[in-house]
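User: Could you go from structure to sequence for me? I need the amino acid at each position, not a summary. Structure tokens:
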């Protein structure tokens, strides 16, 4: 009986310690569960925000492209109006010069519109041929001009913001390599003289 009385307090202490440890584990598990729920809720919010962002970005891109198209079209319309007026006046124009002046005004106006959109023409005529800027359609020989000089321009090239969107189509000067006439003529003259001397001897 004495042994049972002495063992009971120890067992009680151990049981109480186990209960405390178990309670601490439960508290930790509850905290971990709460953190997990909070993180999951945040993840759901971030995922929803990202989906909305993707949809909003797609709409903004479409709206921006539409706005830029509208802006470009609006800048072209005045030139189109002038072209229409020129065609109408062409029927009653007294001479060709009046018509040509009208066309030149429209052409200059179109160039100004392109410049306003950072589009510029590539210089080609009388420039040294540059394969990065020019596309050689054929070669021609003009001795009074330098080698690889652009002689004619089939089609103008253009840059957009400094980037080539269409190279110039050109004709390039190609000089034929000829030897000087003196070097070709001197040796035959010398050999002819030698043969004549031998014959006379």
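Assistant: Here is the amino acid at each position, in order:
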């Amino acid at each position: 009986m004495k042994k049972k009385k002495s063992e009971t307090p120890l067992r009680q202490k151990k049981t109480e310690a186990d209960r405390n440890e178990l309670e601490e584990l439960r508290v930790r598990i509850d905290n971990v569960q709460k953190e997990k729920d909070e993180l999951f809720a945040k993840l759901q919010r971030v995922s929803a925000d990202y989906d909305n962002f993707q949809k909003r970005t797609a709409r903004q891109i479409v709206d921006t492209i539409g706005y830029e198209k509208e802006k470009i079209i609006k800048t072209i319309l005045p030139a189109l109006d002038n072209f229409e007026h020129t065609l109408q006046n062409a029927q009653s124009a007294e001479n060709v010069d009046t018509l040509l002046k009208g066309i030149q005004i429209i052409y200059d106006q179109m160039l100004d519109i392109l410049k306003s959109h950072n589009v510029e023409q590539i210089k080609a005529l009388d420039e040294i041929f540059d394969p990065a800027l020019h596309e050689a359609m054929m070669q021609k020989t003009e001795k009074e001009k330098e080698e690889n000089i652009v002689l004619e321009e089939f089609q103008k090239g253009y840059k957009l913001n400094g980037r080539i969107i269409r190279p110039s189509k050109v004709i390039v000067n190609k000089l034929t390599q000829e030897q000087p006439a003196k070097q070709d003529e001197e040796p035959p003259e010398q050999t002819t003289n030698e043969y004549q001397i031998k014959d006379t001897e």
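One structural detail worth keeping in mind: The CA atoms of residues 157 and 173 lie 19 Å apart.
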